[in-house]
Amino acid sequence: NVLKPFENFESSGIKITPFPVYHMYSQDKEIPENKLNNTFGFLLEENKKKIVYLADYYKLPKKSLELIRNCDLVIADGTYLFEELFPEKLEQVGEKTDPDHLHGKQILNFLKELNCKNVVFHSITHLTEKMHDGLQKLLPKNMLISFDGIEFDFS
């Protein structure tokens, strides 16, 4: 089976809708929104709850944004969330300018625009050289840094 944008399917009673995201700036920056289909985020729906999963992205098409606004939970890429804390090391020079991701406050502003109730960040980098608890204290209460074994109760 081939995934197609906005064509949902069901698995284990969960409705899953793939939606396109812009991921590789050098390859997809010129692709019109209605033709984009190379990288997806996913909307999962069950019992009137909406959970969004976003892997790597730097921008979302308008139709994708409309679909996922006001969700209950968004699980979002946090690779460059704390980039202002990256030490100035030679091996990290290009990290702060990677065009394939949102960076720092761009991530927080994007998520604020989505207006989701809760946010969980995955893929937090170790480049900050800070521990989980120290980074967690820098975020609003509705935003969490993921960890092994994390569980959510949506009952």
Word description of this protein:
With 155 residues, the chain is an alpha/beta fold. Helix content is 17%, strand content 23%. It has helices at 25-28, 62-68, 104-114, 132-136; strands at residues 9-11, 14-20, 40-46, 49-53, 73-77, 118-122, 143-145. The chain has a seven-stranded mixed beta sheet. It is globular. The mean pLDDT is 85.
Keywords, separated by commas or semicolons:
alpha/beta, 17% helix, 4 helices, seven-stranded mixed β-sheet, 155 residues
Radius of gyration: 16 Å
Mean pLDDT over the full residue set? 85
Report the β-strand fraction as a percent range: 15-25%
Number of strands: 7
Order of helices and strands: EEHEEHEHEHE
Helix content: 10-25%
> Oligomeric form of this entry?
single chain
The secondary structure category is: alpha/beta
Low-confidence stretches: none
Q: Which sequence of strands runs across the widest sheet? A: 1-2-3-4-5-6-7
For the largest beta-sheet, the strand count, sense and barrel status come to: 7 strands, mixed
Determine the N-to-C terminus distance: 32 Å
Rough shape? globular
Number of helical regions: 4
What's the short version?
With 155 residues, this protein is an alpha/beta fold.
Draw up the topology in text.
Layout: E1 9-11, E2 14-20, H1 25-28, E3 40-46, E4 49-53, H2 62-68, E5 73-77, H3 104-114, E6 118-122, H4 132-136, E7 143-145
Parallel strand pairs: 4-5, 5-6, 6-7
Antiparallel strand pairs: 1-2, 2-3, 3-4
